[in-house]
Amino acid sequence: MEHWVYTFQIAGHSASVNLDTIFTMWFAMFCLIVFAFIATRKLSLIPNKLQAVCEKAMGMLWGTMDTMMPPDNRKHVPLVASLFLFILFANLMGQLPLRIIHLKQGELASPTNDINLTAAMAIIVLVYYVGAGVKQKGFKFFLHNFSFVGIVNALVELLEMITRPLSLAIRLFANIFAGEILVSIVLAASAYFAPLPVMLFEILVAFIQATVFMMLTIAYVGSATSEEH
Amino acid sequence: MENLAQLGAGIAIGFGAIGAGLGIGIATKGLMDAVSRQPEVAGKAFGFFLLGAALAEACALYAFVIAFQLLGK
């Protein structure tokens, strides 16, 4: 489970990147871009199969947004939908047999088994929901009515700005990471047939974790932009 | 010292799993209650159950991360 760390010097400081994560991340993004490109060619009023699937997926995302957020929420769909699709593709990539390509260190698995990637996505969500709240309500987003409860609420919300991204990042990372370790342990016990149920379970976990990340993003953005906040 | 770290990792993941197991058990109980009371909401309730179970399970995985840090890998 070690990564292929590449260290370089930038302005006197040493920085390191995980090359295998970067490669698999770009691979997932490439798959997603090609899929989106193919799906949006030759749009027609009577959809073919691929267009029908994509329309169904977008309808599902819009339905989720409509049920969980106050109205005027479809402007948040780009972030939420791209997070969902990227995490889904990235998680499912872990079940592809990319590991047979040998690297110098590490292995090609799903990019979400690296906490740097999930932390980056969680920070994007933090910046987005604070930005959406400030845009909606101005500086009053950070303030509450002046009372004991209001002050405690404001402090708790400052604390939540740390704990929310932390829990988002660690939840996704730990699920995928634990799944890979589980598969490798079962694989060490028996190479044939025994890992199959575990891998099927991992596919379920991939869908659930992508949904959980999306749902929590929607809940955070919704609570930041709602009136009674 | 390394043996103590391994012991700590085992204790961490064990106590973490208690909470996650309790949480998923309570979630399943709620699902069973809802479905036996109103069988037509089974599909919708199962989606929310999976969501809640994933959130409860995450607590065990936080413990897993701590255990892995203790093992020093």
Short description:
The complex is a heterodimer of chains A (about 230) and B (about 70). Chain A has helices spanning about 20-40, 50-70, 75-95, 115-135, 150-190, 195-225, and strands spanning about 5-10, 15-20.
Note the topology.
The complex is a heterodimer of chains A (229) and B (73).
Chain A (H helix, E strand, L loop, with lengths): L4 E6 L2 E6 H21 L9 H20 L8 H17 L21 H23 L10 H42 L5 H31 L4
Antiparallel strand pairs in A: 1-2
Helix pairs in contact in A: 1-3, 3-6, 4-5, 4-6, 5-6
Chain B lengths: L1 H36 L4 H30 L2
Helix pairs in contact in B: 1-2
In words, what does this structure look like?
The complex is a heterodimer of chains A (229) and B (73). Chain A contains six helices and two strands, in the order E-E-H-H-H-H-H-H. Chain A has 229 residues and is mostly helical. Chain A has one domain. In chain A, strands 1-2 form a two-stranded antiparallel sheet. In chain A, a hairpin with a 2-residue loop joins strand 1 and strand 2. In chain A, helix 3 runs antiparallel to helix 6, helix 4 packs parallel to helix 6 and helix 5 packs antiparallel against helix 6. The termini of chain A are far apart. The relative contact order of chain A is 0.13. The mean pLDDT of chain A is 85. With 73 residues, chain B is an all-alpha fold. Chain B has a single domain, classed as F1FO ATP Synthase (Up-down Bundle). In chain B, 90% of the residues lie in helices and 0% in strands. Chain B is built from two helices and no strands. The mean pLDDT of chain B is 88. The chains are: A mainly alpha (229), B mainly alpha (73). Chains A and B meet through helix 5 and helix 6 of A and helix 2 of B.
Count of alpha/pi helices of chain A: 6
Low-confidence stretches of chain B: none
Oligomer: heterodimer
- The chain-level mean pLDDT of chain A equals 85
Rg of chain B, alpha carbons: 17 Å
Which CATH-level-2 architecture of chain B? Answer: Up-down Bundle
SSE sequence of chain A, one letter per element: EEHHHHHH
**pLDDT < 50 runs, ≥5 residues of chain A:** none
